[in-house]
Amino acid sequence: MISDVTLPPPTGRPTVRSLRPDEWSAALEYCQAQGADGVMAASRIAAAGGALAESWGAARPDPVYRAQGQVEPTQNRFDAAQDQLEAAKTQSEPAQTQDTRAAAGRPGHRPRPQGASPRPGHTGDRPGRQSTWGAPAHGAVWAVERSSGGRLTADQIDGLAWAGGNLVVMGVDQTAAGSLANQVHQTGGRYASVVGEASAVEAVWRKLRQVWPAPRSIRPCQPSLATNSPPLVRPDPRVRVATPDMLNLLEPACRAMFIEELGFAPAGPSQGYRQRVAAQLAERAIMALIDPASGQVVFKAEFGAQYGSWVQIQGVWTASDWRGRGFGKAGMAAMVLEARRRGWTNVCLYVNDFNAPALAVYRAVGFRRVGTWATVMF
User: Fold this and answer.
1) Sheet (strand 157-163) strand order
2) What residue spans define the domains of the chain?
């Protein structure tokens, strides 16, 4: 359950407040200055913010593509958090079942105690708070500003956060983290994850972990990759845009990808997840390769958040029986080619650093590392 303890106020803390419609251009300018990582965060904000994003206007200049070459991994930044997870698992959890022992091999994985609530905060919360782990439907965008008063400009922003289903953070340093953590905690939101630029996630989580329940898993180093070139390998022409009549084929594949990646099934009624996949199909957001002989989904991936000339790829999955045979590379090449056909000349994604096969696929297709993300999952 969310603790009622109040975080100690940071000394000399910056101001954290919601953006006004006339300040979105400042947020856009700030995001552009952050390179590809800023664009990825901005795309999440723009896609999830709904009506809020409309105030950005139709003219959205493309941000600068800024490859950073070799970026230092951030495993050490979350050592303390991972140690906390391991200690909690050792001290309080019952003997693991065979399934949880198998899952525990994933870095940062923390199996739930038997009989525990599906999501932290699901029961026992203070009266008046939501009992489910989800923020208000329309979300909010918060800016950390150096000085309050007047209209916000880009050079006054010390960080941004979008509070929706997830808490997406960027540009927040150790100084600003305390102010943002207090804002998050005091508003009482629940989030499926804290995700974003690794240094920002680390800074915010160091504060929130004092009063939030233990997370399910921490992924401290997720390389963010991008390409602005045609694919370096030949696309498979059989990878096509999936259509709504393929729902019965694609839903099990999407669900299998979710479970394999996160270690648990999608939360909520199964019909809700099916509706989510149906909506993606209606938006032509899923591409797939279907084996004509067996009718099995061989490869699938999704177009996610979009911003200007950028699009994020997510949900990449190759069926286990078909792995190691080049379908991942050819499928990703087809995704990049389709993205460029739709006008997205910059394609980005992020991946767990321990997923060596996926990293090899993305490098072969032409993706370059441009930054590092991290995720604290609940």
Assistant:
1) 15-18, 140-145, 157-163, 167-170, 193-197, 368-377, 217-227, 346-350, 310-318, 297-307, 286-290, 240-241
2) 15-69+118-223, 229-344
